[in-house]
From TrEMBL:
This is Mitochondrial glutathione transporter SLC25A39. It is found in: Mitochondrion inner membrane. GO terms for cellular component: mitochondrial inner membrane. The keyword Secreted does not apply. InterPro entries: MCP, MCP_dom_sf, MCP_transmembrane, Mtm1-like. It catalyses: glutathione(in) = glutathione(out). The keyword Mitochondrion applies. Its main location: mitochondrion. Pfam families: Mito_carr (PF00153). It comes from Oryzias sinensis. It is a multi-pass membrane protein. Belongs to the mitochondrial carrier (TC 2.A.29) family.
Amino acid sequence: MWLTEKQAAKVKVGRMGERTVGGPVAAISPVQQMLASGTGALLTSLFVTPLDVVKIRLQAQQTPFHQALTCEPAPWGGVSRLHKRKCFLYCNGLMDHIYVCQNGTSCSTWYKKPTHFSGTLDAFVKITRHEGLRTLWSGLPPTLVMAVPATIIYFTCYDQLRDFLRFGVGLQGSFVPLLAGALARLGAVTVISPLELIRTKMQSRKLSYSELRVCIRSAVARGGPLSLWRGWGPTILRDVPFSGLYWFNYELVKAQLCEQCGTTQANFSISFTAGAVSGAAAAVLTLPFDVVKTRRQIQLGEMDSLGVSVRKTSSTLNILKEIWTELGYRGLFAGFMPRVIKVAPACAVMISSYEFGKAFFQKVNLDRQRLVT
């Protein structure tokens, strides 16, 4: 729902993220929301991708790809035993993507370099000096094909759903951001899941577009249309609770910071702080779902590269039981620090950029209204 000018003029940030009567705030269109979220997605990826490239290179140094045998996911979401192929997750700050190496021959050069690193800072310096600054953003373009549209859908739907629930349905309370965030993420994941499956097939098997069409038709013929949404369940189990908790905490923390600063609208620093805090909290609370989703993603990557039947992969419930049996509750909450370090800054950059973009368009629209009147 696009707010009318009359509604927008009554809106300002209040306690618990509610909207109350206040100064004039110009409405922004869904297209402007999409532009703001798209810009935020690009900035987030540019900021976070170098961190993940360095992380992957450090991991590859510990277990070189040319020595890899077969990959089995570790309980904390990494790779424990390696045999003929190597699977790992690449994150551009917006989404996790599966990558598969086959005998070290189909790996991109950016994660096969033999340089030895003594630590994170040393890796940044040596990669920049010997391989060029652009190497820190290796692998980014193909992952943005899905990450940017997914982020645009997600953030735009959240704002539209939140305003619809408040002004269209008349719901009030702190649960509105939680519900809107969960529904927005559900829609975005559902739309993007088939595209991510297609990208994984192309990367793991080196398929041409004509071969890809045949492969997809064959998969649909065997498993039905729902086979295009393989891995949807574990992704939903992690992303939907994360999104609901994130938006609930974000609106709460933002409102409290605005109240402390004596302002009715969040500035960049308030949005950045609220995004980091809420992102870290949601990341820790949903960590067990992240562990399960990571292991499932790697299993699906192996399946796509080896041509294994879907029936031979573990279900989400079985993965939970395996982790609990092997490591107990600690296995489900292992790796919380790396996840927080990755998620908190990504959330902070994304939401502050998005809010800044929306504020920019609000100012443009308000100035336009004043010129007309």
